[in-house]
């Protein structure tokens, strides 16, 4: 039970990391290689704000999340959107360059040593059903649930969500219907950056971070997206929780030093098995369609007789 609960709580952090990446991929069809660095940037900005103003890092999000979104908006609006028209590779290379730029800038400004966001409750714990749980992990679970469900409801129930889905499915028709696709893409990227900043604060309080930590978080985000389904917001939640359990069980069996290895191995296995699963699902769908067609023909034939 302890291993399972620990995996679920860690999975909430993974879901927060993955939901912004899934949003960008689902709407813009963009693989954002700078997502991990945006997470780290959010953690460093929260460190600055909380130090200068003397507030809790989560209160600093009231400044950090909008600031990160404002930085990300023109990147998508005036750089990546134009590159998307030239194919998949140019924006992919551009986001990789942005990730290197952010990492190098943070290294120059703050050095390469690890730091964390200090709070009184960072190491505090509570006893629930005989299990000792960290308060920050429970906070992370609550934030992940609220964040994922809020994004899902906006996507499904609001007019802005209709515009997002329209721009994703058919941007040409959406533009003809009066939707400014370029603005939709930029706002989506900015929202993803704000979500990344929230994940950065969670990770900064619970663990530690360095300017080069982004690559690890990016891999975690990709694994969550692949496991939960590309472009699925709710899938990011289930994918994150599942990955957390996989990591927790793997660490318990193999040892704590293999925690990251389990994530890498899960990513490779999922990528290898996903085409097989999709092929099997397609064959099953065709078989059901053929049976339904055969039943319809038999019914019509019996009716004629």
Any overview of this molecule?
The chain is mostly helical and 305 residues long. It has one domain: ABC transporter involved in vitamin B12 uptake, BtuC (Orthogonal Bundle), CATH 1.10.3470. Helix content is 80%, strand content 3%. The chain is built from eleven helices and two strands, in the order ααααββααααααα. A two-stranded antiparallel ribbon has the order 1-2. A hairpin with a 2-residue loop joins β1 and β2 (131-134). It is globular, with a radius of gyration of 22 Å.
CATH uppermost class: Mainly Alpha
Q: Say how many strands there are.
A: 2
User: In angstroms, what is the radius of gyration?
Assistant: 22 Å
**Total domain modules:** 1
Main β-sheet description: 2 strands, antiparallel
Distinct helical segment count: 11
Class based on secondary structure composition and strand pairing: mainly alpha
What is the string of SSEs from the N terminus onward?
HHHHEEHHHHHHH
Pick out the low-confidence regions.
none
Q: In one word, what is the shape? A: globular
- Mean pLDDT over the full residue set: 85
> Cα distance, first to last residue?
62 Å
CATH architecture: Orthogonal Bundle
How are the strands ordered across the major sheet?
A: 1-2
Percent range of helical residues? over 70%
Could you name the key traits of this structure?
3% strand; two-stranded antiparallel sheet; globular; 11 helices; ABC transporter involved in vitamin B12 uptake, BtuC
């Amino acid at each position: 039970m302890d291993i399972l609960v620990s995996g679920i709580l860690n999975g909430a952090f993974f879901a927060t990391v993955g939901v912004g990446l899934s949003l960008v991929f689902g709407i813009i069809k963009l693989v954002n290689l700078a997502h991990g660095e945006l997470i780290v940037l959010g953690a460093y900005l929260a460190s600055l704000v909380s130090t200068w103003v003397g507030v809790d890092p989560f209160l600093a999000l009231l400044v950090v999340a909008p600031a990160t979104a404002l930085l990300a908006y023109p990147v998508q609006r005036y750089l990546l959107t134009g590159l998307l028209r030239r194919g998949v590779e140019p924006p992919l290379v551009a986001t990789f360059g942005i990730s290197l730029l952010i990492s190098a800038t943070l290294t120059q400004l703050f050095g390469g040593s690890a730091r964390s966001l200090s709070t009184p409750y960072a190491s505090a714990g509570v006893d629930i059903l005989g299990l000792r749980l960290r308060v920050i992990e429970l906070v992370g679970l609550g934030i992940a649930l609220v964040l994922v469900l809020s994004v899902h409801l906006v996507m499904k129930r609001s007019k802005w969500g209709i515009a997002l889905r329209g721009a994703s499915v058919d941007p040409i028709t959406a533009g003809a219907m009066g939707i400014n696709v370029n603005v939709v893409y930029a706002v989506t990227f900015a929202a993803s950056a704000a979500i990344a900043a929230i994940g950065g604060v969670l990770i900064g309080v619970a663990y530690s971070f360095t300017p080069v930590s982004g690559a690890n978080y990016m891999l975690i985000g990709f694994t969550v997206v692949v496991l939960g389904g590309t472009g699925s917001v709710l899938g990011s939640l289930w994918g994150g929780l599942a990955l957390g359990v996989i990591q927790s069980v793997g660490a318990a069996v193999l040892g704590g030093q293999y925690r990251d290895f389990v994530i890498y191995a899960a990513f490779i296995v999922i990528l290898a098995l996903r085409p097989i699963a999709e092929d099997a699902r397609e064959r099953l769908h065709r078989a059901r369609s053929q049976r339904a067609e055969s039943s319809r023909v038999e019914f019509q034939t019996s009716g004629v007789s």
